[in-house]
Structures are given as C-alpha cells and as structure tokens.
Write a structure and sequence with these properties.
alpha+beta; 5 helices; five-stranded mixed sheet; single chain; 140 residues
Length: 140
C-alpha cells in the first residue's frame, strides 16, 4: 500500500432522515444542496436487496490530510447549515425528522489518532434538533 492509503482519514456528516419529509423539501427549506439523498423504498446500493425505510438527506465534509481534530471538521460542516432553520424544520415536524451528526474515521496504526469531541455550540445544535451523535472508527 502507498502512504496515502495508510494515512488516517476522517469525514463528518449531517444526516437527516424522515418518513414524511422529502429530501428536496429539506434542501429547499435549508437553502443548501446535499452531498447525497435517497427516497424511501430505494435500494441501499445499486446491487443491494435491502431498501431504505425512510427518505434521507446527507451533507458531508471530508477532512484534510493530517486533520486530527474532529471538532474543527464538524465546524466546517455545520458552518454550511443554517442552525436556526434546521431547528425550526425539526419543530415543524415533531417526531418525523431524525438528525444525526456522525464522524467516520479510518485509522492507521502509524498515524496520530484523531481527537473526537464536540463543542458546546455543536451540542446545542444537536439538542435543538433532538439529534444524535455517532462515531464509526475503522482500522486500516
């Protein structure tokens, strides 16, 4: 493997799912284009047999090479999202919209392990949306 393949990589994602609200409506309300969307009933991947149980809207940001502080990456992600609009969207559809902030890290044993933490502002955004936080770590 080359050194790039052995280096850590990190990604932050804001995932919004709903059985009622379509991804296009989320994009329009927030005024931003997502990285990825899907509709309820679509297959998870082209060759899959399992299907999505809800509509989905994802905004993601890849970390820069050598980035080790998830809090900074999450700030870059959330700076694209109007927090007040997201909170209002959740209030307009109580119990229908789920918000998840996730961090995905691929770790190489030869690299510095990234620091995973949330700032108080990030926690406040999640609280305003009754959102969850998820971390997935994979070893290379």
């Amino acid at each position: 493997m080359n050194s790039i393949a052995n280096a850590n990589s990190i990604k932050a994602r804001l995932v919004i799912t709903s059985v009622e609200v379509l991804p296009d409506a989320i994009s329009e309300y927030l005024g931003i284009s997502p990285t990825k969307t899907w509709l309820q009933g679509e297959t998870v991947t082209p060759r899959a047999t399992n299907i999505h149980k809800e509509h989905g809207w994802v905004l993601s940001v890849d970390g820069e090479r050598g980035e080790v502080f998830a809090v900074k990456l999450i700030d870059r992600l959330l700076s694209q999202v109007p927090a007040d609009r997201l909170a209002e969207l959740c209030k307009q559809h109580p119990g229908s919209i789920q918000v998840e902030l996730s961090v995905i890290v691929y770790i190489s044993p030869s690299e510095t392990i990234p620091s995973i933490a949330l700032s108080s502002a990030q926690l406040q955004l999640l609280a305003a949306c009754a959102g969850t936080f998820d971390v997935d770590m994979y070893c290379r």
